[in-house]
Amino acid sequence: MLNKKLMVVAILGMLPIGAMAAGGSTDASGGCGVGSKVFENQRGVAPQVLAMTTNGTFFQTIAVTLGTSGCSQDGVVKSNWKTAMFIDGNKDKLAHDMSTGSGEALESLAKLIGVQDQHKTAFFQITKDNFARIFASDNLTTDQVVASLKQVLASDSELARYSQSI
CB of 22 within 8 A of CB of 31? Predict the structure, then answer.
C-alpha cells in the first residue's frame, strides 16, 4: 500500500516538471519534443498533460540538443509578462501616446518589445492608425489590449516580427 502511495506521489510530482520543460506552451501540442509528436493533433487536457509529461522525462532536452522532434537549437526563451505588466501599469498613457503616435510610454513600449530604430517610425504610425482597434473601448483588460496590439503588428509585414515579443 505504501509503495502505491509513493508511486502516485512520484507521478504527480513529475507533472510540474513536464509543464516547465514544455516551456509554458499554450497550445495542446506540449511544445516540441517526443510528447508533441506522440500526441500531435489531439485536443483536451489529458493529451496536453501527457505530452508535457513525456517531454519532461528528458526527451525534450535530447530533442532540443539534437534539433529533432520539432525542436530547434536556435530557439529563444521568452517571457512576455514584462510587456503585459508595463501595458497594465501604463494603459492610460499608452492610449494617449498611441492616439497621437508619439510619447514617452509608446517609446518605452517600443524599447521593451525590441523595436529597432529603423522600425520605430512605422511602429508609432501603425499604433496611431490602429488606435481605435487597439483600444476599442474605455474599459479593456490588459489582455485585450495585448491581443489587439499583437494582431495589428502581425498584420504588417515590416513589424510582424515584434508581435511575438508581446
Answer: yes
Query: Diameter of the chain by CA atoms?
Result: 68
Handedness of CA 85, 90, 94, 97 (dihedral sign): negative
Contacts of 82 (CB under 8 A, 6+ apart): 112
pTM higher than 0.85, yes or no?
no
Do 62 and 94 fall within a single domain? no
Amino acid 102: pLDDT: 96
Output the CA angle 28-78-160, nearest 5 degrees.
85
- The whole domain housing 113 covers 81-165
**Alpha helical stretches, state H, the chain:** 2-21, 34-38, 45-54, 60-66, 81-89, 91-100, 104-112, 117-129, 131-134, 142-154
The residue-averaged pLDDT of 73-95 equals 78
Whether residues 54 and 109 share a domain: the answer is: no
Tens digits of residue pLDDT in 68-83: 555 655 555 455 778 8
Same domain, 141 and 108: yes
**Residues 89, 38 share a domain:** no
User: For the chain, what is the domain count?
Assistant: 2
